[in-house]
Design a protein that fits this description.
The protein is 0% helix and 26% strand. By secondary structure, it is mainly β. The chain has a domain of 75 residues. It is elongated and about 60 Å long.
Length: 313
């Protein structure tokens, strides 16, 4: 495993992911003031998208449930003049926190992440009213008030994700099941990611950055020891060798890596191709080698041969 280049900071405040022991540490994204694990709310049409920052893998990479049908009460819902149903917050003094794993809220409600300080990251949990006709995992959904309010139209055990901050529309994703020590994602092709000090426990699609196949508006980014599909920012991505400040601003199939890993790179980071370490002719720039992304025995299934083009260090 190559020596890890020094950590660096960019000026973009984004998601801070957990570091996985034994992996090649990346550059990190953020202003250095965010607590580890914070995710900002947003979507593919907003500047406040949740993206990876202190991801745990890659040589010098710059940083980016089962549902039930509980009985609900119409007494806590109101309808505006257009006939649109809005979910009102429960009258629970102090908004006490709840447990996302056990969903220990009263019948007709669900435990949800929210921003209790009015900020741009989920930092607490609370019980919120269930929609009387909830949307299932994988279906379009709508958030109420804001993307961080903790109120949405998704079913028990899920939340509205990748929210457009103008329309407040997104997609329902499942919470992880089991517990933090042994998390479970029932949907095939997803993996559990636990961030924001345990406030977000989401089952998100796994992907391969060398052949990204994420939904439209999302990119394949490193998060923890996995690559997951996350909302992409609305910026023009860079091509091979061009400058970048975080993992989410390179073309699909490219990583934003430390400048010393890319020929003639003079910025905080530059875009470099992902590659296959078994490929005799990887798509690297002159002088670069296809360097293994993961340390020995650390690669998830299907990513054992994943590498990134890098100058020897």
């Amino acid at each position: 495993m190559p020596a890890s280049p020094p950590l660096a900071r960019s000026t973009v405040a984004l998601l801070v992911a957990l570091l996985a022991p034994g992996c090649v540490f990346p550059m990190s994204v953020g202003d250095g003031n965010d607590e580890a694990g914070d995710v900002a709310a947003g979507s593919s049409t907003s500047e406040s998208n949740p993206l990876p920052a202190d991801s745990s893998t890659g040589p010098g990479v710059t940083g980016p449930a089962s549902s039930t049908d509980p009985t609900t009460s119409a007494d806590t819902n109101t309808t505006d003049e257009t006939g649109v149903l809005f979910i009102e917050p429960l009258d629970i003094p102090g908004d006490p926190e709840c447990d996302l794993w056990t969903q220990d809220c009263p019948r007709g409600t669900k435990c949800m992440p929210w921003a209790n300080d009015g900020g741009n990251a989920w930092n607490a949990t609370r019980c919120s009213q269930l929609d009387p006709d909830p949307d299932a995992v994988g279906e379009p959904c709508t958030a109420e008030e804001s993307g961080l309010s903790g109120f949405d139209s998704c079913a028990l055990g899920s939340m509205c994700w990748d929210i457009d901050l103008e329309t407040l529309e997104g997609i329902c994703v499942a919470f992880c099941e089991g517990d933090e020590a042994a998390p479970i994602c029932e949907e095939e092709g997803t993996a559990c990611t636990i961030t924001n000090d345990g406030v977000l426990i989401l089952c998100l699609p796994v992907c391969n950055p060398a052949v990204p196949d994420c939904p439209e508006g999302q990119g394949c980014y490193p998060l923890g020891d996995q690559f997951l599909c996350l909302p992409a920012p609305t910026v023009d991505p860079g091509s091979v060798g061009e400058s970048c400040e975080d993992i989410a601003v390179c073309d699909p199939g490219l990583a934003c890596v430390e400048p010393q890993l890319v020929p003639d790179c003079t910025s905080a980071g530059c875009c470099s191709p992902y590659c296959n370490v078994t490929d005799p002719s990887p798509p690297c720039l002159p002088g670069q080698q296809c360097t293994a992304w993961y340390g020995p025995g650390m690669a998830p299934e299907g990513l054992e041969d994943l590498g990134v083009c890098a100058l020897p260090v």
